[in-house]
Amino acid sequence: MRNTTPAKKPRPAPKVGIVSLGCPKALVDSERILTRLRAEGYEISPSYDGADVVLVNTCGFLDSAKAESLEAIGEAMAENGRVIVTGCMGAEADTIRDAYPDVLAVTGPHQYEAVVEAVHDAVPPAHDPFFDLVPPQGIKLTPRHYAYVKIAEGCNHSCSFCIIPSMRGKLQSRPAHHVLAEAERLVKAGVKELLVISQDTSAYGLDLGYAERSWRGRQVRTRLTELCRELGELDAWIRLHYVYPYPHVDELIPLMAEGKVLPYLDIPFQHASPRVLKAMRRPGNQERVLERIRAWRKICPELALRSTFIVGFPGETEEDFRQLLDWLEAAELDRVGCFKYENVEGAAANHLPNHVPEEVKEERWHRFMQAQQEISARRLQQRVGTMVEVLIDAIDEEGTAHGRTYAEAPEIDGTVHIEEAQGLGPGDMVTALIEDADEYDLWATLLPVS
Ligand code: SF4
């Protein structure tokens, strides 16, 4: 007679809700926290109602982001009442506790252990490895077909408008083999696009002396070019964000021309006037940068460039602003975001003289956006009539697919719309002909599979 074990009944798992605010880097932190909690047997609650505790992962980059974070904490307190706060704004525990004395715990950015401990205190885990299985790629908050891969934390710069280095510390890179192992796991789990992020992606590995690590029988340096070359061996789109134009960025362009990495660079230029860049404490040779952009485009003509800028920085004169507009016209970037300068508590720029009046910032922002819209529209028109690969993100009720080509990152750039795309689903890769464009989006028709 065989010995049988009675079937084990699962114990009810404690449920954690999460509100994730801020940038993709914060989203990656949320994913890591949830992956760890899920591994311990917690369930993720999609609503406040069902959650035993709610995590609010905050952003504290700008004062407006802090206000939004406080509002989110308030909502979670009102809707659920058992709230743990983490993320960038966690560095300002007093502000949070002044507003919401009953939050269960406040932890700062990257304090994964502390967040998990706070969750344990609030609602102990009911782990049962027999029932609680985590998919090997972890828990993702992005759609299944794309994922952010954070290659480093912190930053060695000290831009005067930014408090990230004081909140997140100096550069700390993840060794190349760790990043590659994560990337490979994600691709095996069905991810089609990996978005490489960090505060300063070009600086990757500097803190580790670009140390070599063993990966698949090869020695790989913990350095951006070498990492990209290895990532390029995976069957996925590799997209690079927050790349500062250090000299070695030139090495990436041939990899883009070869198709190893998407010909897309997100470079936060922030300004073009040497005076303003100096006040921002950023390198200021934008003429040289223009020459490099032209050289990159010669090697890789399809290169798409995205950037962000700040207008109305303290001391910015009309002359500085015009210089910025002229540079923009010369650089012909494909996609651009623009922020009006805001003081951030604790940032050095707050104490600079000659703050720009709000109405001037507003007026410059409109002029900037108008100028860039014309440039973007021109750039997008040049793509009409070309055949492109589109990664589908969503299909709407009318059967129109919405997706992106190599030149559009999710959330921040435009969209490619393809009508009569019934039968397609998120994550599908299709070939389409671009038929029309405005200043943000493209319209395309599906081409038959050959
Ligand atoms: S490079 Fe400048 S803006 Fe970016 S995180 Fe570092 S200090 Fe902040």
UniProtKB/TrEMBL annotation:
One Pfam family it belongs to: Radical_SAM
Q: Which InterPro entries match?
A: Elp3/MiaA/NifB-like_rSAM, Methylthiotransferase, Methylthiotransferase_CS, Methylthiotransferase_N, Methylthiotransferase_N_sf, NA-bd_OB-fold, Ribosomal_uS12_MeSTrfase_RimO, rSAM
User: Per its UniProt record, what SMART domains does this chain match?
Assistant: Elp3 (SM00729)
Q: What is its EC number?
A: 2.8.4.4
Principal localization reads cytoplasm
GO molecular-function annotation terms? protein methylthiotransferase activity
Which PROSITE patterns does the record associate with it?
MTTASE_N (PS51449), MTTASE_RADICAL (PS01278), RADICAL_SAM (PS51918), TRAM (PS50926)
* This protein's record includes keyword tRNA processing: no
Q: What is the reaction catalyzed?
A: L-aspartate(89)-[ribosomal protein uS12]-hydrogen + (sulfur carrier)-SH + AH2 + 2 S-adenosyl-L-methionine = 3-methylsulfanyl-L-aspartate(89)-[ribosomal protein uS12]-hydrogen + (sulfur carrier)-H + 5'-deoxyadenosine + L-methionine + A + S-adenosyl-L-homocysteine + 2 H(+)
Q: Which residues form the MTTase N-terminal domain?
A: 14-124
Q: Where does [4Fe-4S] cluster 1 bind?
A: 23, 59, 88
Intracellular or extracellular location(s): Cytoplasm
Q: Which GO terms describe its cellular component?
A: ribosome
CDD domains given for it?
Answer: Radical_SAM
Give the UniProt keywords, A-Z. Answer: 4Fe-4S, Cytoplasm, Iron, Iron-sulfur, Metal-binding, Ribonucleoprotein, Ribosomal protein, S-adenosyl-L-methionine, Transferase
UniProt domain Radical SAM core: residue ranges = 141-378
The TRAM domain is annotated at: 381-448
Iron in keyword set: yes
Obligatory cofactor(s)? [4Fe-4S] cluster
Family from the record? Belongs to the methylthiotransferase family. RimO subfamily.
Function according to Swiss-Prot or TrEMBL: Catalyzes the methylthiolation of an aspartic acid residue of ribosomal protein uS12.
- Report what the protein is called: Ribosomal protein uS12 methylthiotransferase RimO
